[in-house]
Amino acid sequence: MAAIVDTAAMIDSAALMNKMGAAAKSAARMLGTASTAQKNAALKAAAAALRAGEQTIVAANAQDMTAGKAKGLTAALLDRLMLDGKRVAAIAQGLEDIAGLPDPVGGVIASWTQPNGLKFERVRTPLGVIGVIYESRPNVTADAGGLCLKAGNACILRGGSESFHSSIAIHACLVEGLLAAGLPAEAIQLVPTTDRAMVGAMLTAATWLDVIVPRGGKSLVARVQSESRVPVFAHLEGNCHVYVEASAEIEMAKRIVLNAKLRRTGVCGAAETLLVERAAIGTHLKPLLTMLLDAGCEVRGDAEAQKVDTRVKPATEADWATEYLDAIIAVRVVDDLDAAIEHISTHGSSHTEAILTQDTAHAADFMNRLDSAILLHNASTQFADGGEFGFGAEIGIATGKMHARGPVGVEQLTTFKYRVHGNGQIRP
């Protein structure tokens, strides 16, 4: 396992990538045949190490928080970065939840017999070695490492400089868990430097990596998708919408909209645009705007929204396509369901959309016609999270259409192979 190096030092990124990649490939061969019990033991031991090391982890995080504030990180980014006892406990619980999930490896997806007597099975198998590039969320170190382990994959994690010390402390607990279960420490590796050259080295490491998962801002994901020579699970941004119809129960709508926008503004499932049906201007628009503004949320609205409350700032065309990741929301009045779907299809990022309505036919139409990865009826967009889906955690949310879509959990971190059983057949 690579030693932690001076974060300011120049490194031979290609040599380091080759060293880590070779070690990961070797570890992946062992993990691919590791028993469910052994993988679960590693996850539980890592969770215990996290709980025992809470003070060390929080102290390491304090270094990152101090540096982040000095660097001028936004409140939303600092919230993503911050760890306390409660959050460390939640990370540990996440690993235990992953241990409690069914093991996908070896599961038979389908089986059939051909007329010639050959018996076919499509069976889940690990992807191999997964590279994860992420920014200011130290919990991703544990989530990604734990999910990859459960799915039988080795992983190489490259966290951001903002969370470097926190990630080192969390990673040490993961390694402790691996060793306690008799698994190789190289199964979960953390890039030991913040040198940006390592990102480029990972993107071109097709010899060692089977897939890359970027988890961060638009610029990071765009770079990965543009430069990677390795397959990518990614989404560019989470421009999520909530559409409120006149039939929506107003108190429920207020609870959901407030939660969708302000529960945590820095997560990719936070609502960025609120659409309100024209027929609901007199009943829903004013209370929703008042609630958001009084809660400290900046509202950028169209002419209709500005008429309702003078505190609403005029929206520009760019606002409809912006992922704020902050206490800002764009508000637009639309004529009907068709107009809402048209707006989302034009400006959305295929991430997560919600409709608030008592009309089940409209809800079904909304879900059928939109092609976003996650669609909700009468629920907050902040449920766009693998843990809330019952996946234990997530390595990220994919909005592409190949292989994985939505929260990427253990099942999505596998591929499949075919096992064919015969009794002497030859092909004529």
Strand order across the biggest sheet? 10-9-11-8-7-12-13
Average pLDDT figure: 93
Structural class: alpha/beta
Helical stretch tally: 14
Could you characterize what this model shows?
There is one protein chain. This protein is α/β, with parallel strands linked by helices. Helices cover 41% and strands 18% of the residues. The protein has a 7-stranded parallel beta sheet with strand order 10-9-11-8-7-12-13, with helices on both faces. Strands 5-4-3-6 form a 4-stranded parallel beta sheet, with helices on both faces. A 3-stranded antiparallel beta sheet has the order 1-2-16, with no helix packed on it. Helix 2 packs antiparallel against helix 5 and helix 10 runs parallel beside helix 11 (281-294). It starts with 12 loop residues before the first helix and ends in a 7-residue tail after the last strand.
